[in-house]
Amino acid sequence: MARWSSALPSPGSLPGSSWVFLSESFFKRLGSRKMTVTPLSWATMETAAKGRISMAMGEELKLKHTIKLRVTKVRGVIFLLLACAISACAKDPNALKAVDGEFLDISGKTLLVNYWAEWCKPCREEIPVLNQLAHSNKDIVVIGINFDGLSVGEIQQQADKLGIEFPVLTVEPEGRWGQAKPEVLPSTFIIGPDGRWQKTLIGPQERDDFVSALNL
Fold first, then answer.
1. Alpha helices in the chain (DSSP H)
2. How far is CA 64 from CA 44, 53, 61, 68, 175, in A?
3. 3-state secondary structure 147-161
4. Rounded to whole angstroms, how far apart are CA atoms 15 and 18?
5. Out of 8, 73, 114, 192, which residue is the most buried by the measure of CB atoms under 10 Å away?
6. pLDDT tens-digit profile of 97-148?
7. Residue 197 and residue 216: Cα distance in Å, rounded?
8. Which long-range contacts (CB under 8 A, 24 or more apart) does 191-199 make?
9. How many angstroms separate the CA atoms of 54 and 48, rounded?
C-alpha cells in the first residue's frame, strides 16, 4: 500500500504539480531519514522544452544561412567563369593585341601601321608626329610594330624609352593585310576602314606626308 510521507507537502497544497507516490517499503528502507522533494510543475517542464526547441530552431536557421551564403558564393564563381568563357569565345581570334594586354578596337577605322626599331634614327624622329596623329582623330588608329621581333617585355621597355604613346603589337602580323614584312625602315602601311591595304610609305615621313596619305 502506498502512503504519503509526512515530510512532504500535501498534494492538495500545490495544485497543478506532478507528484511521485512512494511505496511503504521505500519508507522502511529510508528509516528515520527525511527526504525533501521539490515538485516539478508542468509549466517548468514546458518552459524547458520550449527553450530546447528554440535553441534547435536557432541552430537550424544558422545552418540554413550558412548554406545560403555558400550557395551564393558558388553561383558568383560560376557566373564569373561563364562570363570569362563567353568573352573568350566572343573575342575575334584575329584581334590585334598590344603589349599592355589590350585588344585593339579597329573595326571601321583607318590604320596607320608603323614599323620601327630602336636603332633606327628616322624611326625615332617620326614618333612625336605619330603620337600627335594618334591623339588627333578618333577614326584613325596608329599602331606600332617592332621590326626586330623582340619579346613583349623588351618591346614595352623600348617603347617607354622612346616615348611611344600609341599601341605597339606583341607580334608582327605578317601577311595580315596582304603585304610582306618591309625590308626598309621606317615603313608605314595605310589600311582602309574596310581592312584592306591602301598604300605603303617608305622612309621618314613628315606630318604633312601622313595627312596627305590619310586623306585628312
1. 24-30, 42-90, 121-136, 152-162, 207-213
2. 30, 16, 5, 6, 60
3. CCCCCHHHHHHHHHH
4. 9
5. 114
6. 999 899 998 999 999 999 999 999 999 999 999 999 999 989 999 999 999 9
7. 17
8. 191/110, 191/111, 191/112, 191/113, 192/110, 193/108, 193/109, 193/110, 193/139
9. 10
Task: Enter the pTM of the model.
Answer: 0.58
Q: Among positive and negative, which fits the CA dihedral 149, 153, 159, 161?
A: negative
For residue 124, give the C-alpha cell: 625615332
Q: Which amino acid belongs to residue 76?
A: G
**In Å, what is the CA distance from 82 to each residue of 89, 103, 169?**
10, 20, 28
The set of residues, in sequence order, having a beta carbon less than 8 Å from that of 29 and lying 6+ positions away, is: none
- pLDDT of residue 7 exceeding 50, the answer is no
Residue matched to cell numbers 606630318: 207
User: 197-202 and 187-191 as β-strands: parallel, antiparallel, unpaired?
Assistant: antiparallel
Q: What is the DSSP string of 70-85?
A: HHHHHHHHHHHHHHHH
Place of cell 522502511: 28
